[in-house]
Amino acid sequence: MQRELNRKGRFRYRLKKLYGTGIFERCATADATNVELLRAELDAGESEALIQAQEKEAHAFIGDDKKARVIAERMGRKSVGTVRLLARLKLEGRVGSVEESVAVLRKDLEFRVTDDVIRKAIETAVEPI
To answer: How many structural domains does the chain have?
Structure first.
């Protein structure tokens, strides 16, 4: 996943800033075999993120791919979408506007999300992740 994000131009600088907040940590996958096994069903980034969640025993998987979210649930992980995470961070005062954050993702990463998903994420932000 690091390779996927780091090749996305200026987004890597924003990601570095996010890591600097201490909310998230950079991690690497230890078991490349498990990542490759998931590659039959998912892209590299989603495969690596799922295996990292499993290895770190994280209670949640952050991802937007529907198939990856289903697999995460089967693995015992709660699935949280990017916009839901942004809405929660906004509620905690850690990011500015959800809509502005999504606009940056759309510009930098060609992120696709409907206004309805954004609205629902903001409505459910009060629920802990």
So the answer is: 1
